[in-house]
Amino acid sequence: MDAKVNVLNWFEISVANIMRARKFYETVFNIQMETSEMMGMNMASFPYEPMGGKLSGALVQSDMHKPSPDGVKIYLNGNPDLSDALSRVEAAGGKITMPKTKIGDDIGHMAFFLDTEGNHVGLHSQN
Asked: Which runs of E-coded beta strand occur in the chain?
């Protein structure tokens, strides 16, 4: 790993109910997620272009994936303005735990929410 490559290349958000979690994230981000089953894990993948060099990930339900508000923190892309996605969180069944907050002029803004599975998830956007 060096400064020219993404620090992350994949992420997984642990879920207890794949269909409920899929509906939540599809609603909040206004996207369609593809479902699959791999090695005993139920997955719903965030949109991505294979071999496109962009980071992506999935919601994953399995015996080794346990949702938790105290687990790893990830920041999902809320560009161009995270207020758009954040405005749909509570109607989709989640809870905003940190409203849109300015980090700095050159870094942008952040917010946190609890999803329907109990995960504490961040949002980031430049505006």
From this structure: 11-14, 34-38, 41-45, 57-61, 75-77, 95-104, 108-114, 120-125
Contact 25, 44 (CB under 8 A): yes
Q: Which CATH number is 11-125 given?
A: 3.10.180.10
**Residues 86, 112: Cα–Cα separation, whole Å:** 9
Dump pLDDT digits (tens) for 42-82: 999 999 988 787 888 999 999 999 999 998 899 999 999 99
Beta-sheet pairing, 41-45 with 95-104: unpaired
Q: Whole-prediction pTM value?
A: 0.91
Nearest to 96 by CA among 107, 85, 80, 108: 85
Domain ranges of the chain: 11-125
